[in-house]
Every structure is written in C-alpha cells, then in structure tokens.
Write a structure and sequence with these properties.
signal, D-Maltodextrin-Binding Protein, domain 2, 10 strands, ABC_Gly_betaine_transp_sub-bd, ABC transporter substrate-binding protein, five-stranded mixed sheet, alpha/beta, about 15% strand, disordered N terminus, 12 helices
Length: about 300
C-alpha cells in the first residue's frame, strides 16, 4: 500500500518534556541503536513520531497519552513524512517510537518477503527488524488496501469475497491508484490468485472522493479504498473478503528502539494495542476527517473511553 494521502490533520505538539538523544550508528536501514547516559532508556522519556497522515498522527498521540498517564514523560513529533524520513529519525535518535503497519514495514526491511497473513507477516517482521529495534505486539486493527463494491452490486451478484467475483457475468472495472496496474494485489493479483479479469480505471486519490464517486456512480464495479476510510461505512459499501490473503496484512504495530522499550513502556503500549481494532480506527478517522477534531483531542477521548 503506497500512502499518498494529501489530507493532513493539524499538527499539534504534546509538549510535556524535552529530550536529548544519542545518535545511532549507520549500517542497515536503522543502524545499531546505542544508549548513552542521557538517552530515553535511562530517563524513561520517549519521543513518539508520526508519519504525515492523520491516522498515524492520532496513533502517535494515543501512544504518548497512554505513556504519560502511566507516569512516563512522552513527547510527540508529528507529521515527519513518509517512511524513509521517519526511519531516518529513528536512526539518528530524534524519535524513539512510531506507529507502523506490519506489511509495509516488512517490505521495507525485506523486499523479497513472501508472508501475507497477519501472523505470517508479523513473524517475518520480527526477524527482519534490524538489531537495536523491535516491534511490540500487533493490534487486530488493520489499515490496508481493500476492494469495495456497492451493496446493490453485492446483493445482485451474491458477491461477498474476491473469490465470488468469478460468478459475475459483466466486465469488471476497478478504480484505484495507477500503480494498481502492476501491484501483486492489484489487477495482476486478481487474475493470478482469483482468476478474475478486471480493467483498471486509474484515479490517483488513494481511495478518496473521486474513487468513491466512480464506484457509487456506476462507472466502475470495484474500488480500492483503505480499510479504515470512513466513506466505506458512510456509503454502506461492502468490503470484499480476501480468503486467499492476496492483500498483505497491515496490522498496526509499534516500532521502538530497544533503549526506549523498558518493561513499563512495553506493558503500557501493549495494553493500547490490545484495545485497538479496525472499527476503532474508522471511528477515530471519522472524527478527524468529518468532525475536524484535532489528533490530540481524538487520542485523549479514546484513551478515556478505554480506561487506558
């Protein structure tokens, strides 16, 4: 899944403490993280980064808020950029922790990885993460590419899964980003994995309003929309299941430096992970995109609702 979402939530800073961190040595994508006497490991302070899209920023504030409530000094550094930028921030020590997605992170560290299901991807990811860093427990919450159809189409043709598409007798068009023409879970995957022929209608808005309009307007029968996008529920769309795990699992997972991953920090974050579901992400994203609430407020309200 290539994240090219243009919409960003307003960046806020959870200004609870400042922190100086030791730089990491170079080597693999993260390098070897070393701990100095002033690092976050010794002071139980954590800087949480976020990628440059609203959901990830919300998750960063969720992590930081939970840590703060547990008596751990936490600061958020939001909207750092795409994966190369925030991985560099982990490497140079300017952040300690970032919310990540298992499938994409695995492919970043191991481009030849073949794992697809949640458990397989997570197991492979644990082995692929460079020395000095780790991933904590994955949440059931996922934000992945998903194929969606209208309820009318689903009812008319009895389509609930990608495998069911073989029953459809009309030509199928799919609205998605242009790269769907070559991605393993795009047009080629539908053919090779499910035996379904489709024609791509390229719309470069990452499952946004133009993609939605093409689907609901009948210009296409399928649309690739990220699974936590509020428009799926708002428009009563049917997300097709993927019984053969063609689409790489994308469970939310904390990527953290070893020096910041104290027993207390780990325990707090894993309680958060246990409470995160895909429906919870959708609800938080709705508050961001529809209600225009700040990432910090959304995170605070969610933590209170879960007694975290």
């Amino acid at each position: 899944m290539v994240r090219t979402r243009g919409l960003m939530a307003a960046a806020g800073v959870l200004a609870l403490a400042s922190l100086a961190l030791a730089a990491c040595s170079s080597g693999n994508p993260l390098g070897t993280n070393t701990t100095s006497s002033g690092g976050s490991g010794s002071s139980t302070s954590v800087i949480v980064g976020s990628a440059a899209f609203p959901e990830n920023e919300i998750l960063a504030y969720v992590y930081a808020g939970a840590l703060t409530d547990a008596g751990i000094t936490a600061t958020v550094k939001p909207n750092i950029g795409q994966r190369p930028a925030y991985i560099a921030a982990l490497k140079d020590g300017s952040i300690d922790l970032i919310p990540e997605y298992t499938g994409n992170l695995l492919q970043y560290f191991d481009a030849k990885a073949t794992a697809q299901s949640s458990d397989e991807v997570y197991s492979a990811l644990q082995k692929a993460v460079p020395s000095g860093y780790k991933v904590l427990a994955q949440a059931t919450a996922q934000d992945a590419d998903s194929y969606n159809v209208t309820k009318a189409f689903s009812d008319q043709y009895g389509v609930k899964s990608l495998d069911d598409l073989k029953k459809v007798t009309i030509p199928l068009k799919v609205a998605a980003n242009p790269e769907f023409a070559t991605r393993p879970y795009g047009v080629p995957g539908l053919k090779s994995v499910y035996g379904v022929d489709t024609t791509l209608v390229p719309i470069a808005d990452s499952g946004g309003p133009n993609t939605l309009k093409a689907l609901t307007g009948g210009d296409v029968q399928l649309a690739d929309i990220y699974s936590t996008t509020p428009s799926i529920k708002q428009n009563n769309l049917v997300t097709l299941t993927d019984p053969k795990n063609m689409i790489l699992a994308q469970n939310v997972v904390p990527l953290i430096s070893d020096k910041a991953a104290t027993d207390k920090v780990t325990a707090v974050l894993e309680k958060v992970q246990a409470a995160l579901t895909t429906d919870e992400l959708i609800a938080m994203n709705t508050k961001s995109s529809v209600d225009k609430q700040s990432a910090q407020q959304i995170a605070t309200d969610w933590l209170k609702s879960k007694n975290l």
